[in-house]
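pipeline/complex-builder :: batch 7 item 3
reading input block
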Amino acid sequence: MAHKKNRNVAIIGVGQTKHSSHREDVNQPEMIHEAVSAALKDANLSIKDIDCIVHGNMELFEMIHQPDLWHVLGTGAYGKDSIRITTGGTVGTTLACASDNLVASGMYDIVMAIGFEKLQEGHTTGGITNMADPLWFRNLQTGALTGSTAYDVIQEFGEDRAKRAAMMYRIVMDKHACLNPNAHRAFGLDFDQVETLMNTSPQLVGELRLIHMCSQSDGACAVIFACEKKAKELSKKPVWIRDHITIHREETFNIFGYHKDFPVLKTHKFAAEQLFKRNDIKNPLEYFDVFEMYDPAAWWGLDWLRDFFFLKGDEHLRLVENKEIMIGGSMPINPSGGVIATNPIGATALLRVAEAALQVRGDAGAHQIPKEVKHALASGFGGTMWTVLMMLEKELSW
Amino acid sequence: MALDYDRKDCFIVEGKLALPYSYFAGRVGSTFITTLRDKKKIMGVKCPVCNKVYLPPRQTCERDLTDIRDNWVEVQPSGEVVNFTVVRYDDKHLPKKAPFVMALIKLDGADTPIVHILDGIAPEEVKIGMKVEAVFSSSPTNTILDISHFAPKKPEKAFVSERKPSGAKGEEPVISEEEKLLKERRKAMSKKVIITAALAGAATMKNQTPSVPYTPQEFAEEAYKCYKAGAAMVHVHAREDNGMPTHDHKRIKDTHDAIKEKCPDIIVNLSSAVGMGKTAEQRISQIVYVKPEMASLNTNTMNFSIIDRKTGKIFIDFVFENTFTMLQDFGKAMEENGVKPEVEVYDLGGLDNWLLISKQGFFTKPYNFNFVWGVAGGMSFRPDMFMVLKNALPEDSNFTTCGVGIEQFPAITMSCLVGGHMRVGLEDNIRVPNGELAKGSYEQVEWAVRIAESLGREPATPDEAREIMGLRKR
Ligand SMILES: [Zn+2]
């Protein structure tokens, strides 16, 4: 049984900016306004139709206190109810979950979630450093970079196969990004570059190389949620939210390695188990048609496939090696290009939900997957070790 | 009192976060700062939907999300203090040595206040409502400190102060109960006076005074000046480019709309007389088409001629036809279309005509009358006649007055004195009281403001005028 809902909720509009490394031409509210107007236009609504604004980004990344108040000029929250949410990298999916809950509860009929980040203006590491305890960890942490997953995958599958699979994953993401006009980084990489990139891309931490890592982007995303009655009235293609789950169960923040007796980074698996069990989904790989995953680095994206889909042995590597994760494959991952291509952090996880919704609608344009999308999955990941999963459906039929 | 407790074995982590950042100002913010720096001009943006002038400027109106990035308007470097605080401690992040005043200042022409330093005055002398002006910095800073600070405004010779746009009341400053009572009493004593500017009429031509407007643009400019000077309403007879009065719907609407675009706050009162030789249909259909907030309604058929005032010689003889049927039909058409009639009273008989027809009950309260003096065919201005008319008005009536030629200023002064309103403008008179040609209707408005002030009355804003006369804002 999915978690109890007072009423059904659907996504009826999505909007995003073109994402890039710099947006000198607009200030924060102006940039956000681009996504807000795009979402309103997509839903064919005006700001008057929105009952509540849910605003989110990373804490202090732009060095601005109470950004939701600064941004009213662009969000349209003037005179409306409004909430700010910040849960780290997951914030975008948390915005979606909160919006779903706010509508499902009956409190509001139409809610707009807005995630944004202008990483170029702030100092990401300065902000991230604050999440570590000043007494125990602040002097010891490395920010968002970690080489431990690369180390683990190499230990398990051998150096050559592991490195190739990670670089394959990376190149697939780039190929997808090249089809997405809003993506930030789209290099035009090809599979014959696997070996060169494996050896020449600058190392960040161990085998985590620059090319594997996500970007720092400026951009915003807005998604409009409506109750069943309004969604059916207002939208030809509402995308239904079936269920969502939020998990954080790490006792200790440790990203540089672990002992088998002290497992970390297993929130993905735990979240997927709980969510799929209560929705009676036995084989998620078969059930879902597409997955927009929060994949901050190629090694993580590769490794996490196993956690999300309950895969055994090297099944996740084979999915990548056989290009089953490509648009047109059996389980397309991130047709949008994912987080490695585009990462305006506060918007990133909301973009996963937005892109998954576009796939369900069939409106993703050049990066639309060729088969009908009935069931889509979106994930968020962030500090400190949280997982958020959201299931989207084409039909109200579960 | 210091809190005394045991700090033994309490370790404190002393840290410091250096957090560099940059802020992309956006194009609107950039234009504001560079214009301030390079031209010493303070620029706001105006929302055409809600008519607010935002300062600092922004790309979208927060109220209706209208894109206003290109609607630049220059605001005045002067304004008034709407709130303030006195900074009484020194800290390195502060822009000045304490004590100093930080004030919220609403610049003239803007609807939103900005924060800045107020200097050149002792903190205890600062008052909410005081007039201040910008002092620009001598060398560029690339920040808002290109306005170095604000200082009390030096008194000017001009006796006309620019009016506040109506509706922009802002937050009421905190005042004591005593002050509040005093304010209430003062308010009760001084009733607001509505100043109307009749910009053109049907007969005033450019060869008499170049300031009379013909084109929609000229009407708009002239209306705006009158508004700035203190007029709440303009009365309009639209003209062709050659100056001929017109009943053409499009031209009248263009003229009306041009005025409202340039000056959205102001009330437009259209003539239902239009000009000589127009049919009843031509006179009323344009009112129904344009639906102004107010229109003139004439009460009697009369001579409306041009006669030499000194010799009595007839230049143009004309009968201005306003039958009972027309009074009834025009009145009904206006009421049905939400256009408030301004009842034109050229003599006591006209008022009696209206009183008769009004028995049908279609006129809505409050009623608004205009006593017109000095038309050749109507009555000349006589104070006792003024009182006769005033005393004959039904309950819930407002009255204003206008006079042709030299009767203009005596008549409006009397009206203001006995609680009525005032109409000036080049339609009625092309001169100011000292005999010189008026620079425009606005200069007569300035004189009217002066009369009002000397009689202890304050010019009404358009919204206040709407409230008094019972108009629906368009
Ligand atoms: Zn507006």
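note: Chain B has a mean pLDDT of 89.
queue -> next item
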